[in-house]
Amino acid sequence: YTPPEDSLVIQKLHHWQDQKFGMLIHWGLYSVAGIVESWSICSEEADWIPRDSTMAYEDYKKWYWGLKDSFNPTRFNPEQWAQAAKSAGMRYAIFTTKHHDGFNMFNTAFSDFSIAKGPFQTDPRADVAKYVFEAFRNNDLMVGAYFSKPDWHSEYYWWPRYATPRRTQNYNIDKNPWRWNQFKEFTYNQIGELMHNYGPIDILWLDGGWVNNPGTKSVLDMDRISQMARQAQPGILFVDRTIHGKYENYQTPEQLPYPWETCMTLGVDWGYTPHAVFKSPVTVIAKLMEIVAKGGSLLLGVGPTPEGILQDEIVSRLQTIGGWMKKNGTAIYNTVTTPQYYSEGIWFTMNKDGKTMYALYSNPEAEKFPDYIEWENNIPAKRSAIYCLQNGKKVKWEIKNNRVRVYLPQNLKTEVNALAFSFTRQAIQ
Q: pTM, whole model, 2 decimals?
């Protein structure tokens, strides 16, 4: 990890680290068909890349590209998305402006393969990214723009002269430097549109780590892109996923000693798929507890329908999560890690002043709370109180066999089997 040096980037990075919980929205051509995002047109064999086996590969690609003619999201409602994120207690949101298939969810001058050039072009909000970002800002969310570095629709990346057997460019860059230079310029120009035409943006979330990977020929002009982007958007965070170095201001695996984020879907896939099975609110809360205790942030993925709305099942789950966050969020937001962040099913976070500690308990499999929970280390100060954040009341606790035992309140009004407790930590000698 390479820490940033720009003071504005450092300031924004610290602010982002306090937010802890965000939404990632995948919406594109794949939503029309209700299939895994983009990957079915990549001719790689993997169980998670489904494709109609009755159709020849080239015919399948033509069918997929043709989905642009039926993408007409007449119920497009970015306010619903942003309000659902805010109601869940999320503090930032990232929108997919372009996925690997190259379909643009913004009005670009450099491609006709765009939501703003199809049947939705007559709608006043055809430049959907503009209104998505506005909705994020209106709901006090940090704004992130996801952008795929590879573009499988661009002839400068997948040259029609050759087959497309892999996710990488399908030609030799050494033998065709002009073509790759055209792709670099195309990428620079599109990112420039996002940086200059869509208001304040906090995060540029670049995906497709096989492009610009050190040791490969498929490099982009990241120095030039960064200079342009930070002139237009001072302090913007770069997340060049999996490309370690100065353009990966925070990383996206887990449990690292520097800024990081875990990406997880609410359903099975990133985008909309019919008959999706969604994670329960307590499952998401349990994962959020774990991630934050380890020093990370959770970016939860949802996919709007082809019409442009979030399904009721998604909204209701987010509202339930938000209900818990309203009561217990002080154990999540603006916290830092503690050396003993886990003990016997309990996760721990701490205020930045190092005085107040939080114990977080959840059990997605249980139907009711146990009589008590126990943990080692993280001893409360003598004669101090432990409070249950859910109701703000003191709970009984004791030291038993050199372990902290906390007796849980019963019959609490809570929709999820998860609790957070606050206490003053014992002074470290």
A: 0.96
- Written as one letter, the residue type at 66 is G
**Chain CA centroid to CA 248, Å:** 15
Q: pLDDT, tens digit, for every residue of 120-176?
A: 999 999 999 999 999 999 999 999 999 999 999 999 999 999 999 899 999 999 999
* CA angle, residues 36, 318, 369, in degrees to nearest 5: 115
Rounded-to-integer distance, Cα 241 and Cα 24, Å: 14
- Residue pair 130/198 in contact (Cβ under 8 Å)? The answer is yes
What's the per-residue H, E or C state across 140-209? CCEEEEEEECCCCCCCCCCCCCCCCCCCCCCCCCCCCHHHHHHHHHHHHHHHHHHHHHCCCCCEEEEECC
Buried b (16+ CB within 10 A) or exposed e, 91-113: bbbbbbbbbbbbbbbbbbebbeb
Cα(72)–Cα(427) distance, integer angstroms: 61
Q: Are 262 and 297 in contact (CB under 8 A)?
A: yes
Token digits of residue 201:
């943006």
CB 334 within 8 A of CB 426: no
Report yes or no: 363 and 345 within 8 Å, Cβ to Cβ: yes
H or E, element range at 372: strand 372-375
- Helix H or strand E segment including 274: none
